[in-house]
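Quick start: read one record
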Amino acid sequence: MVSCSNWESGYFSAYRHLAARSDLDAVLHLGDYIYEYATGAYPEAKYVVRQHEPRHEILTLADYRTRHGKYKTDADLQAMHAAHPIVAIWDDHEFANDAWSGGAENHTPGTEGDWAARVAAAKQAYFEWMPVRTSTEGTVFRRLRFGKLADLHLLDLRSFRSAQAKAGSGTVDDPERSITGRAQLDWLKAGLAGSDAAWQLVGTSVMISPVAFGSLPAYLLEPLAGLLGLPKEGIAVNVDQWDGYTDDRKELLAHLTERAIRNTVFLTGDIHMAWANDVPVKAATYPLSASAATEFVVTSVTSDNLDDLLHVAPGTLSVVAAGAVKAANRHVKWVDMDHHGYGVLDVTAARSQMDYYTVSDKKDPAATASWARSYRTLSGTQRVERVYQPVL
């Protein structure tokens, strides 16, 4: 599992290390395969490792084609594609930051044209350049079956979603707002209920676990707010994740519990951090209340995380932030805010285990990779637990 590979932020060493493995059935890319920004916009120019093509923000079909083409010149990316099947879904940066069905945070209609035309161009280039079957509906949600072991339900959380809630507006619970759209949520619920596989794996580009950010000091709140899309005033809701669309989440988790659908594991990218979470039905009363599923979130391939934003060594200021997050969220068993890398999910009838790997330095094209941590979900438990060695 990989996500968030920003060309300008570093080298794709994670891809090289995945290419070298002979034990993988597929690589799941959870989105932000490319980034739309102009060179020097993210990260700022003095931290750019290598420059995008084209240099300007991509808007047209020619622009998106060129950006995809530039990514495909990377030797590590080529090696990964040559070695393994790639199962890919998109997130927002394949279009523009914080995209929704009618626009995006990083799209200004007055100067950047019609949003629908930009999306059409981005999707056409995506289907031309990515090993994903072209959809007549212009979406990537689909289901892959791995025998009786697992069904993999892949979501499109950009094409059908309502606009993100305004900070402090109180609309995150509005049942008229949706992250999936009605048809996709019904498709997911039917697939989960009708499956006879041992495991239900759900590829979701943004985190479904609820997260409150507790009492963070101001010097950490602002960079975390920027990283996670939180309002800088300190209102602790990430409105771009499922936290901004709580009615959809409530309906989905109720479906899992009421239908006694066991062994659902959400597989997630997006936020440039690694997490291992239980997915509680009611976070406020957890762990006294039930866990409906579990979630494994992988960090970014290169895109900035907390130590990058603060320009400090890993494992320094992040210790305070991670401690505050875990204290305020008892269903969060682990969070790593500093490192880059990938995850390897190993599924058997008895358990699903995520091994987290980190790269030594995203700015070093010869970076090494090492195992960092492992967590697993035992069949029937709907909870994660730490494991002290990776699957060999």
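The mean pLDDT is 94.
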